[in-house]
Amino acid sequence: xxxxxxxxxxxxxxxxxxxxxxxxxxxxxxxxxxxxxxxxxxxxxxxxxxxxxxxxxxxxxxxxxxxxxxxxxxxxxxxxxxxxxxxxxxxxxxxxxxxxxxxxxxxxxxxxxxxxxxxxxxxxxxxxxxxxxxxxxxxxxx
Length: 142
Hints:
The protein is an alpha/beta fold and 142 residues long. It has one domain: Rossmann fold, CATH 3.40.50. It contains five helices and five strands, in the order βαβαβαββαα. A five-stranded parallel beta sheet has the order 2-1-3-4-5. Helix 1 (20-29) packs parallel to helix 4. It is globular, with a radius of gyration of 14 Å. The two termini are 18 Å apart.
């Protein structure tokens, strides 16, 4: 099959500084892109319904549990990838505001986004938000 990974509509949320490489990977796969520096701006947009929401998380407490819940409920049909920067190395052990299935470390983002594009296009089964560590590993390494 001659298929190119593409994300039709991408929403990027967060501060791009220090995650330029991750943003470059994501924008290289996307057709239409909207970016917001914060949660409030993303929640206020009533028109753009993304296929994938890419959240840039630089530190473990950057987003509160309430903000996470609001974002997940605002875009229930969208895929999510939360790109964790180096300061989030212990995320998942010390905190877990985001579902484990949507978190990915910055160095693994490119491969995760290609898998998410496959989900969007019906080529791959989606990883449910309730997935455990083993299911996430299988999704990322299959």
